[in-house]
Design goal:
- The chain is an all-beta fold.
- The strands form 2 sheets. Strands 3, 4, 6, 7 and 8 form a 5-stranded antiparallel β-sheet that branches. The protein has a 4-stranded antiparallel β-sheet with strand order 5-2-1-9, with no helix packed on it.
- β3 and β4 form a beta hairpin.
């Protein structure tokens, strides 16, 4: 009797590749990650580590461009979780004020506030073709743990 087992590729630890600048309100903010197992959930977490302000589940690709729809001054973490529950978070960032406010959700958010929070689903947006080769001029890498 010959027994065989399927050999599954081992998942690499999740790692973020995000711009070194903080998100600016109403300016698309690209995030790319490597490792992990799809589908992924991309989340915007308040600086107080409460429940996500926004969540984008069931992403099959390892990239997402967030609309940066929170007011300047809001403290956030970006987080990606994969199908196995492994996750990676960015460093704490403070949203920068922008010239536009038409994209903002509800009223301005303060750190830890849950009022006006939203959960969104749907396809990720893409940087425009004119945004440069990757849309990410410089990046910060952050490794996660499983």
């Amino acid at each position: 009797v010959v027994l065989s087992s399927a050999v599954l590729p081992s998942a690499q630890a999740l790692q973020f590749n995000i711009p070194s600048r903080a998100p600016v309100q109403c300016i698309p903010y690209p995030a790319i990650w490597t490792g992990g197992v799809a589908p992924y959930t991309f989340s915007i977490v308040p600086g107080s580590q409460g429940p996500p302000i926004e969540q984008f589940p069931n992403l099959s690709e390892n990239r997402f461009t967030w609309s940066s729809d929170l007011a300047g001054g809001t403290s956030i973490f970006l987080k990606v979780e994969d199908a196995t529950g492994a996750s990676v978070e960015s460093q704490l960032m403070s949203m920068e004020d922008g010239l536009r406010s038409d994209c903002l959700k509800g009223t301005p958010h303060s750190e830890g506030a849950t009022g006006g929070s939203a959960t969104a689903t749907g396809a990720p947006t893409r940087p425009s073709a004119g945004a440069g080769s990757s849309g990410v001029p410089s990046a910060t890498q952050v490794s996660g743990t499983s």
